[in-house]
Design a protein that fits this description.
Length: 324
């Protein structure tokens, strides 16, 4: 009985010795490279202030490129667009009428237009003179003075155009009058095109597929001009940032593929798109894993599954030499 016990003890000792030898002789598991998910948002806004008439998305929604996002109340710009279209028709009619010859009634019409244009100049001058001291005192923003100046200059330009047309009509220079009318038609068309473009900008669409990260206004709220209404994170602007020790930098260059894993997401692959030319002495502490006090380089890679990744999420990147 004792010899059997001795054989069993000897077998256990041999097994432990073999296991210890295997453990000590095996290659150590590669240490993953620390990193995190980073994303650059796009902020969608309208160039004109107004009430938020419609909101087509919510936070967390995924949308495709070209999808509707929101719309600012178009009532004011729609009226301006109609007015610009009417101005185009009027300019075209005047140009056609000039081609048929001048009449006394036409001169009367031009005189009336000139009086109206000069009245607009006086009104614009008065508005500018009223706004200028208020801006100097800080009551109004400088943008208000720029708006008044633009209105004054526009009124003066319109009056000058009408005055020039009156002089051409008196001289009876048929070709010059026609060219002036055609120029007004081109100008009116340009204004109409601009008004139409501004009307379209009140309802921007998604420039790329991605996820709605934030919505800053609710329908009915007043949105200032150029103020973002929502933030979009496009799939193409999601990337993995990780840090490579200086001794392993030879394995990393743009175009190569790395494998990564993270908590709460499926393992994936990413293509390296950028490698820093300048070293850092340590990666961010929150994302560091056994890399402190080592010279590291920042590397950025574009993942193949960006829709599943949230910015700020820590990731572990498998070293390239181990992956190969």
């Amino acid at each position: 009985m004792n010899w059997r016990l001795g054989i069993g003890v000897a077998g256990v000792i041999v097994a432990l010795a073999l296991g210890g030898w295997w453990w000590l002789s095996r290659e150590p598991a590669p240490v993953p490279l620390g990193g995190y998910i980073e994303g650059d948002r796009l902020y969608l806004a309208a160039p004109t202030s107004g009430a938020l008439a419609r909101l087509d998305v919510r936070e967390g929604d995924r949308i495709e490129a070209g999808a509707a996002t929101f719309q600012i109340d178009p009532a004011v710009l729609a009226a301006q667009t109609e007015s610009a279209d009417a101005a185009v028709e009027a300019a075209e009619a005047r140009a056609a009428d000039l081609r048929q010859g001048q009449r006394a009634a036409e001169l009367a019409v031009i005189d009336a237009e000139l009086r109206a244009a000069e009245a607009e100049v006086r009104e614009a001058d008065a508005e500018f003179n009223r706004i200028e001291p208020l801006v100097r005192r800080g009551i109004y923003a400088p943008a208000r003075l720029d708006q008044a100046r633009a209105g004054r200059d526009s009124a003066r330009a319109a009056a000058a155009a009408v005055r020039q047309r009156r002089q051409v009509a008196e001289l009876g220079a048929r070709q010059e009058a026609q060219r002036a009318a055609e120029a007004e038609t081109v100008q009116a068309r340009a204004w109409a095109s601009e008004a139409g473009a501004r009307l379209g900008q009140l309802a921007p669409v998604a420039p790329a597929a991605g996820r709605i990260e934030d919505v800053f206004y609710d329908p009915g709220e007043w949105v200032p001009a150029n103020q973002p209404v929502l933030a979009l994170l496009p799939d193409g602007r999601v990337r993995i940032v990780f840090f490579v020790p200086e001794t392993e930098m030879a394995h990393y260059r743009a175009g190569r593929t790395v494998r990564f894993s993270c908590d709460g997401c499926a393992p994936g692959q990413a293509e390296i798109v950028w490698v820093s030319a300048r070293p850092e002495f340590t990666p961010p502490v929150l994302y560091s894993r056994n890399n402190r006090d080592r010279l590291v380089y920042r590397v950025e890679a574009r993942p193949t599954n960006p829709a599943q990744l949230n910015p700020g999420l820590p990731v572990d990147v498998e070293p390239l030499d181990a992956a190969q």
